Amino acid sequence: MGSDDRIRRDRRRDARNEVIMANGEETRGRVARAMAGAGGVEIKATIPPRQVDVALKAYNLEVGEDDRSIYFFDSPGLEVFEQGIIARARRVVGGQHDSTIKFRPVDPATIPDLWRKYRGFKIEADTSETGIVKSASLTMPVPRGLIKRVAAGKNPISDLFTEEQLLFLLSLASKKLDYSKVVVMGPVRAWRWKYKHPGLPWPVCGELWQRDDGERLFEVSIKVPVAQAAAAKAGFMAFLAEVGAERDDGQQAKTRWILEYSARKLAEGAEADSSRRAEPVSAGSGPG
Asked: 255: part of which helix (H) or strand (E)?
């Protein structure tokens, strides 16, 4: 990357972060507008792959047996994700399995009040190095064994989602999508910890994802009230630097990271199948 590219990148990053990092009376109003409608703020940072083991050791986190498996549902071209929709299901060892429909980004003012009566509904604001994004999601419990049956092709994907979730999906989608193309992607193995550190006043959530090729992504986050967002962001990022856990300049979102990988695998598999079908069949020897 040339110096001009670095300057442009830094300017874009500074502009995105201005609403969080600026000071004074004006900023308080801008932060409030940016967070309006959110029940809380989640401040996230991803750790570069080379720093994952260092970070796990620094936080005294141990990777044991599988904690959870997360499946995603999208078309091979990721049309669902590109429309700002995330559909997923989680198998949690020893816990309640669930499924989620999430829209990201959203304007909370446009979300009908009828969804707020559901316990699994929430509106959140996520802030990272790349700025602020608000999301709306509806999560419902899933019976044990159903996710495995869907992944094995024994049940349709729609069985994982309730009528309320499907209505939520159809009512908020910005355009009509061909859901017949949706396939199962994953699972990604995941481990999740909640812990406290003497260097922070807020509890920390650490989430480690591992793909089937062994690549890992580690995300750390804190959840704070909207009023604390600016101070919490600055303090959290300084804390990460203090403990030696470098932030990932690329700030890869976990969902995009696994979906793009899964889409590549599907494309490679389809290409291999096409090549096999195109191979000429050896002709047998004719009569002498």
From this structure: helix 254-278
> For residue 252, with 0-12 CB atoms within 10 Å meaning exposed, 13-18 middle and 19 or more buried, which class applies?
middle
Report residue 160 as tokens. 């994982």
Residue that is written with structure tokens 């669902």 in the block:
80
Give the side-chain half-sphere CA count within 13 A for 15. Answer: 6
SS3 content of the chain, % helix, strand, coil (to 5): 40, 25, 35
The domains of the chain are located at: 3-273
In sequence order, the 6+-apart residues with CB closer than 8 A to the CB of 42 are 124, 125, 126, 127, 221, 222, 223
CA pair distance 68, 247, nearest whole angstrom: 25
Q: What is the pLDDT of residues 245-278, one digit of tens each?
A: 666 555 557 899 999 999 999 999 877 766 676 6
At residue 112, what are phi and psi to the nearest 5 degrees? Answer: -60, 145
CATH architecture of 3-273: Beta Barrel (2.40)
Tokens of 284: 């047998």
Q: Which DSSP letter does residue 281 get?
A: P
Residues in the chain: 288
Instruction: To the nearest 10°, report the CA torsion of 124, 128, 131, 132.
Output: 10
Global pTM? 0.80
Strand 121-128 to strand 41-47: parallel, antiparallel, or no bridges (unpaired)?
parallel
